[in-house]
Amino acid sequence: xxxxxxxxxxxxRREGEKLFLKxxxxxxxxxxxxxxAFAPGAHGKDAQFKRQRLSDYARQLREKQKARRVYGxxxxxxxxxxxxALRRPGMTGLNLLQIxxxxxxxxxxxxxxxxxxxxxxxxxxxxxxxxxxxRTDVPSYVLRPGDLxxxxxxxxxRTYFKGLPEAVEGRNVPTWINRNADPxxxxxxxLPERHELSDIRLNEQLIVEFYxx
Length: 213
Fold this sequence. Notes:
This protein has 213 residues and is α+β, with helices and mostly antiparallel strands. It is built from 11 helices and 5 strands; from the N terminus they run ααααααααβββααββα.
């Protein structure tokens, strides 16, 4: 499985907004976006002073790239998710967001067991979670409503998970997810509606238009 290796903060700077790829670090004074709020590259600083009028294609591309970067997904897999969203009944844009939100690494992040999706991906890959009683180490595993996610009994003895119940108290949980901090478990109650994803600042219709060209 391939993955992107490089500074995550450059992705935020390229999109011109915070994508919160590093969790709590993005809220502090060490956030690179706050210190260098211009596009990366040799001419990034000059570009911020130029008035740019993006074409329709450019706006669609940027929105697609932003979605990929928020959820940490490569192009081929993202395109497969879009094809699956097309096959499902209903609005394609909402279907796509629901698929992305149903990924195991995203649900672990949403439950507050990791401060970022990248950290959640690492925890899942290292095999710290069970899904419906079975060890699952695939971050892209797509959950269904009612699936039970729990930290494995062996993993609960690790230092990170011992202090997790106190840490998750200050982390909000979406209405479509159930969380039980003791023991460390939770479930996806239902697929999220668009108004329940208000923190995701994406225009999914532009993504639909990009792939529909």
